[in-house]
Amino acid sequence: MARYDRAITVFSPDGHLFQVEYALEAVRKGNAAVGVRGSDVVVLGVERKSTPKLQDSRSVRKIALLDDHVALACAGLKADARVLINRARIECQSHRLTVEDPVTVEYITRYIAGLQQKYTQSGGVRPFGLSTLIAGFDPCTGVPSLYLTDPSGTFQAWKANATGRNSNSMREFLEKNYKETSGQETVKLAIRALLEVVESGGKNIEIAVMTKEHGLRQLEEAEIDAIVADIDAEKTAAEAAKKAPAKET
Amino acid sequence: MKLDTSGLESTAPSFGSSNELIDGFAAAPSFEVPVTTDFDGFQKEAIQMVKPAKGTTTLAFIFKEGVMVAADSRASMGGYISSQSVKKIIEINPYMLGTMAGGAADCQFWHRNLGIKCRLHELANKRRISVTGASKLLANILYSYRGMGLSVGTMIAGWDETGPGLYYVDSEGGRLKGARFSVGSGSPYAYGVLDNGYRYDMSIEEAAELARRAIYHATFRDGASGGVASVYYVGPDGWKKLSGDDVGELHYKYYPVMPSTVEQEMVEVAGA
């Protein structure tokens, strides 16, 4: 098997593209990222590893704006992310120039996925080592959308999904607890999913909320702490309610 | 027969969708410059050679019910009328029309090319392209061929989600959004009638009659316009051809021959 992971243009005998699979491994080692679509918002959340004391945390923004109405969060190689985000931003503007319309979320997702695919079918280059969660509102219809792309260049639309470290646990949580939500409820759901795998606290989570009217808004640490406190309170209340009937019998 | 598809590739610079993987920025398109001592003068001469007067009359205007598009059908080569039955209104797709003024081949080819691009846009994005987008695509292509001798003076008329749309696009690379346009050598005459009789609140029949009359008057005074006055209507369900009347017959309809008194009668002169 070792012979088939050098030049990625070569298939292995059993149909694998090993470089693409290794890229997926790199994604699995990246920080956790979650996206949840509500009826009037889309929420992106990213795990923020503890910032070293000397680092200016404001310079590390993990959720990027592609255009006024589309945002991107990713898991994997951050340097690759920078390149992909720049190309996507240019494409958003180029689209505005050629058809005088902002991109739809599906269009820019298709573009990013196409770019990721191109790098799996060319000589001398390696695939991008990241999966992206793309969230936004369609400019004409106003419908909220959430998409996920991966290093192989595929993309799908999701109601909610997670990628990066421990994404399986987050996804299981979302599958169990997802329901149609809106506004603050959607934010809470996203934070609860992230808290499954991340240490509690506003310091370790970055949340951004995309709405049709106000575009992308990054939540302040204090806001996130407040919501986390809310969630903790609800949790203890639920546990207390469970224990109480047991005591009576 | 191998088709030359080089015209189908967009030569406009498109950032991002480059073929080079390493460099994200596509290089601006460059074309070979002719080897000549008088570079500027050569360009001017070439343009003057192919800058025809755009012998035609086409017009289009937006009104309450949609867009009205009309054109004559004469093709002339100098003083020679080469055809009286040219289709100058080109059907790009069922809800968009383009008009032809200038070089017939240029207009026909690039309108068909635009039709391809519109259809591809529909298939990729699962919704129709807007009139704004379609006219922009054409304008970008024509701009990239600027100075190379294309002669196109066209109007893109259509109906999209935002309602009726009308744009004027020409081979200089200009693109204008407007409610009333007339293009061609007969346009001054057409504008006179059109601007005089135009109201936004017209019925489809009134608007068609106005368009027909404007084309007729242009063909009456302009030698390079004539043939058949075609009138098309673009509404929410797409375009529909309303009429195609020979302008000679229209003349007698508007100015029927009245029997008039004879001033001098010829009298038989007795043989000498």
TrEMBL record, chain A:
InterPro entries: Ntn_hydrolases_N, Proteasome_alpha, Proteasome_alpha-type, Proteasome_asu_N, Proteasome_sua/b. SMART domains: Proteasome_A_N (SM00948). It comes from the Eukaryota. Residues 4-26 form the Proteasome alpha-type subunits domain. Keywords: Cytoplasm, Nucleus, Proteasome. It is found in: Cytoplasm; Nucleus. One of its GO terms (cellular component) is nucleus. Pfam families: Proteasome, Proteasome_A_N. The 20S proteasome core is composed of 28 subunits that are arranged in four stacked rings, resulting in a barrel-shaped structure. The two end rings are each formed by seven alpha subunits, and the two central rings are each formed by seven beta subunits. This is Proteasome subunit alpha type. It comes from Morella rubra (Chinese bayberry). The lineage of its organism: Eukaryota, Viridiplantae, Streptophyta, Embryophyta, Tracheophyta.
UniProtKB/TrEMBL annotation, chain B:
It is found in: Cytoplasm; Nucleus. The active site is at 56 (nucleophile). Pfam families: Proteasome (PF00227). Keywords: Cytoplasm, Hydrolase, Nucleus, Protease, Proteasome, Threonine protease, Zymogen. GO terms for molecular function: threonine-type endopeptidase activity. It comes from the Eukaryota. GO terms for cellular component: cytoplasm; nucleus; proteasome core complex. It catalyses: Cleavage of peptide bonds with very broad specificity. GO terms for biological process: proteolysis involved in protein catabolic process. The keyword Cytoplasm applies. The keyword Protease applies. Component of the proteasome, a multicatalytic proteinase complex which is characterized by its ability to cleave peptides with Arg, Phe, Tyr, Leu, and Glu adjacent to the leaving group at neutral or slightly basic pH. The proteasome has an ATP-dependent proteolytic activity. Belongs to the peptidase T1B family. Component of the proteasome complex. This is Proteasome subunit beta.
